[in-house]
Amino acid sequence: MSRWVLVRDSEMWNVEQKKDDILPALKLSYDQMPSHLRQCFAYFSLYPKDHIFSSYVMCSLWVALGLVQSQKGSEKLESIARKYIDELHSRSFIQDVNEYGSFCDFKVHDLIHDLALYVTREDFVAVDSHTQNIPQQVRHLSVVEKEALGRVSFPKSRSVRSILYPIFGFGLENESVMDTWTLYISDCVSLNLLLINESPVETLRLKHLHLRGFTMLVTLPGWIECAMDTLETLEISIFSDLKMLPVFLTTMTCLKRLYINYCPQLSSLTSDMHRLTALEDLRIKGCPELCRKCQPQS
C-alpha cells in the first residue's frame, strides 16, 4: 500500500506534460532505484542521444569518480560496476545490449535520456551547438560537439569536478579555441577527472586521467607530467603508434591504477616500474608486442 501512496502523492504528476508524455512514470521508477544506481545513471546525460555506450568506458568512469563501493574487500570495483550495468538493464533503463565476453555495449532510449537530463538539471551539462549558456553551479561537464567550444561562454566555476570529451574523433584543431578552453580548465580548481578522446589539452592536478584515440603519438604527451604528484588512475587506450612510455611515468608516486589498452606498437614498459610503489592494479590488453616480451622464457 505504501508504494501506491508514494505513486499517488508524487509531485511528478503535476509536471506539465503532453498527451503521450510518460516522464512522470519514468521518474517514479528512477526514484525507486538505490542511490548508487541513481548516481551512475546521471552520467548518461553527459552523452548525446543515440550514443552507443561501452560498459568498459562507463564502468571505468564510475570507478574513477568514486561511485562504486565494494561490500566485499576482495571484489574488484570494475566487477561491481558491471553489476550496476546489469541491474540498470533489468530495470529497463538501458536497452539493445550486445555482450562481448565480460564487456558489452548498449543504448539508452530517448525517453530515458530525457529523464537523465531532467534529474540532473544544472549539475550536469552536455555542451553542443545549441547550448547558449552554462550554469554557474555546474559540477560535471561534457563537450559533445566541437563547434560549441567557440560559441559558448564558460563560467568561472570553482565547482566543476569532471570534464569529458566523450566522442571519439573529437579533436581540438583550432589553436585559439584550444587556448581558451585550456584557460577555462585552469580555473576549475576542483577538477579531478578529465576524459579525453583525441584532444591534447593542458591538464592540472588531476586524480584520474583517461586518454583514448591519440593515433599519431609515439609516446605520451608531456603535459601529463604536471599531474605526477596527484594522479591515481591513468588509462591509455587506442594509441596505435605508441612505442614507448615516458620516463616521467615512474615518478608518479600516487599512481594506483595503470590501464594500457590496444597499443599494438608498445613493446616494453619503463625499466623503473618498481618505483611505482603505490601501484595496486596494472592491466594490459590488446598489446601483442608487449605481451610477447613479457612472457616467461621457457
TrEMBL record:
Domain spans labelled Disease resistance protein winged helix: 46-116
GO biological process, one term: defense response to other organism
InterPro entries according to UniProt: Disease_R_plants, LRR_dom_sf, WH-like_DNA-bd_sf, WHD_DRP
Keywords, comma-separated and alphabetical: Plant defense, Repeat
Classification via Pfam families: WHD_DRP
Domain of life: Eukaryota
Name of the protein this chain belongs to: Disease resistance protein
Species of provenance: Trifolium medium
